[in-house]
Amino acid sequence: MKISTRFSDSIHILAFINICQGIIPLTSNNIASSIETSPVVVRRLMSALNKAGLINTVHGAADPALAKSPENISLYDVFLAIEGDAHLFTIDERTNPQCIVGGNIQETLDGFYQQAETAAKAKLARISLQDVIDTIRVKQALKDAEKERRN
Amino acid sequence: MKISTRFSDSIHILAFINICQGIIPLTSNNIASSIETSPVVVRRLMSALNKAGLINTVHGAADPALAKSPENISLYDVFLAIEGDAHLFTIDERTNPQCIVGGNIQETLDGFYQQAETAAKAKLARISLQDVIDTIRVKQALKDAEKERRN
DNA sequence: GCTAATTGTAATTTATAAAGTTACATGATG
DNA sequence: CATCATGTAACTTTATAAATTACAATTAGC
């Protein structure tokens, strides 16, 4: 249980590529500065995003680009790229098979957890990177307007 | 990071109390044997379940009991008792506030994650401990029948 | 009441997964 | 060809949960 910040950071990377393309060079260093992490962590995540076909990267060149339009990249696509078939809930695999509870709890919970997990993933599948980008821009515009108002 | 099995183990404990009551003494030791963990871990979880009003325990006596009927205990009740308001997805809190992405990503993801998380928790809220117990019994009956058939 | 068994909890140690770091081979670009 | 960037492997650090140890508080059988 508990999905690591890799998922969040990956969405961050994709949004950054879209929003900052042409404004600043998209080096792993610059991206890492925005996430406040190390460039290697960024490159690791981008490697996975590349393999999953969400971005196109060029070995040696600081020129990554989204492989699809942001409307066609869902948060579940990102989750799959980074976490694969990881589960939101963890089943204790080491229980006593001799006991009626210990011997059947895994299969039982697996079914129920699946329901909850699928519901969550279905929601993620309906949220696009474009939604994320739009929301970021709205929030930023709000901040800018607020700042302007104060002058 | 180490993934928690507390939620699963807590459901295990509740099912065990219901199914094994009157059959074997419900000591933390016996429960721990079924989960294959230590009695202290079991007592810790039971302490939380007790505080949340899901079970009644007696200090010094090996006699825990469900505080409500299994139909009226949902998996979300258990989740709340053990994990509180813990999130299924983790937002990276340390990003560069100067960057348009780093400065707005938390609030943005929080909203979207909330949607997914609520969907999952709503499913959990609709699954009762009775459902879990019923499923365990069905699976066990299947195994028994299978075993019988082989003789 | 006394003894044995049990819970409840704190403190400590161990295990594990992710984050971060170092290093370097490979490839791009002016 | 010099510089800069990526892609990855190997290693270290850090965070969190599980397991262990210890013991006070409580119950229950005799």
Automatic annotation (TrEMBL), chains A, B:
<dbReference type="InterPro" id="IPR000944">
    <property type="entry name" value="Tscrpt_reg_Rrf2"/>
</dbReference>
<dbReference type="GO" id="GO:0003700">
    <property type="term" value="F:DNA-binding transcription factor activity"/>
</dbReference>
<dbReference type="InterPro" id="IPR036390">
    <property type="entry name" value="WH_DNA-bd_sf"/>
</dbReference>
<dbReference type="Pfam" id="PF02082">
    <property type="entry name" value="Rrf2"/>
</dbReference>
<protein>
    <submittedName>
        <fullName>Rrf2 family transcriptional regulator</fullName>
    </submittedName>
</protein>
<dbReference type="InterPro" id="IPR036388">
    <property type="entry name" value="WH-like_DNA-bd_sf"/>
</dbReference>
<dbReference type="GO" id="GO:0005829">
    <property type="term" value="C:cytosol"/>
</dbReference>
